[in-house]
Amino acid sequence: MKRTQHHNLAMGFVEMLLSIVVIACMLSLLILVSNSLRTETAEQDTRQTLRMLRVSLMQYHQTNSNWPKGPTPYALMQMLSDPASRDTMHNVSIIMLRNKLPIVRDGFGQEIRYMPPQSGHPSNQPDFVSAGLDGDFGNPTGQTPQSKQAAIDNVYGVDTEKHLR
User: Fold this and answer.
1) 43-163: which CATH topology?
2) Which H or E run includes 155?
3) Phi and psi of 105, rounded to 5°?
4) At how many degrees (to 10) do helices 2-64 and 72-81 cross?
5) Residues forming beta bridges with residue 114, ordered by sequence position
């Protein structure tokens, strides 16, 4: 009879451990799916924001025959003061800082930057850029592997143009 009690106790313990393992696996899977969905949503929000900024930038250029001057807050102020580009930016979530300068955040919560036209750049057009998931802009033409690696997930407004057609 004692042997049966020990056997039943052991089986109960094994069943309890197995239940705990199954629950832990299910929770891990749920967390993985949740994180994946959150990242996908942030990427979509980032692309949508960059798309609207890019369209607004092009409208600003069509209206004024020049590009806004940087840095980012000043370029945004110029675009907001132009009726054509301001209308496109009405769906962009703009945050006004205490010093009354505007910023725009990507889906990951990081500031989006304005890159003024650069001489030597093939298109010589400005653009807006998000640092992407890692929050590090990096430099695709940088000297260090870390800088090049950090730039891999950068998202540019021009990257969203294929969706506009």
Assistant:
1) Glycoprotein, Type 4 Pilin (3.30.700)
2) strand 155-156
3) -105, 150
4) 60
5) 128
